[in-house]
Amino acid sequence: MVKDFDFEADKLHEECGVFGIFSHKDDVALNTYWGLFALQHRGQESAGIAVSDGKNMFIKRGMGLVANIFKDGLQGLEGHIGIGHVRYSTTGASMMFNVQPMKVYYDGGNLALAHNGNLTNAMQIRKKLMDEGAVFNTTVDSEIILTLVSRSRAKTLPERVADAANTIAGAFAIVISNDHELIAFRDPYGFRPMVLGKLDNGWVVCSETCALDLVGAKYIRDVKPGEMLVIKDDYEEPESIMYAKTKPVHKAHCIFEYVYFARPDSVIDGESVYQARLNMGRQLARETKDIKADVVISVPDSGTPAAIGYGLESGIPFVEGLD
Question: Is residue 191 part of a domain?
């Protein structure tokens, strides 16, 4: 029974990856595939792509790696708006009905969502919605956002999304689309990363700049904490809405993005991940001058830039010591 399910163990963990694209001239599904491929390090449990052609929304999802899920191609995913998701492996149950993007049909038509984050008030909101008669098909907190959007009485999708975004709390970077608009928004603290990129004939929003590089998009800027971008044209600048009713005094970027989660060739909030890790290694060497060692070895490979920095600062050679 739902009431006996361990939602805490199964909730979507923070290290997922999201990708969104709006373009009438580019192959949206293929670009989303490559974007997810670049973000594969952020989640190896499942992946999916949802694409809209303005009238219909098509979706393909599965368990496993991006290359395996779409090994038979991207047939049937035609359109000009696409969103994709890779999910991080968790200790909770791994079930197909929790795979994203999630898609519903509401009074405004098709609606799909991909979420990277962790809602701290998910259980309270879910209980309230269920008491009011809402029905849930998954055990992840992301579905709560779709339910809030669909139940909002605001007139436009951006207004409905703003209502939902101001109801939830926690860390989130989310892409959501109907058949006409692509919306991306980030939590008021900026805890989870999200960037905006420009194609020759469209726009891209995603978790890391490494995905922009692979699809040939130019990095424009990071989505601001508490900001919503509304994209509905290939060339017109996305509409920027500072939706957050409450603005935190300080930002709260996740340090583990720089330490472990992100790819070293990405840039997050203006900081090179590689350079940040290199500087961390240098600082560690300054704080441990009494340690006398023969070599510096990284464990695992994500620690290589830090190990190189440690070696450069300490004068101890960096070598590869593990297969």
Answer: yes
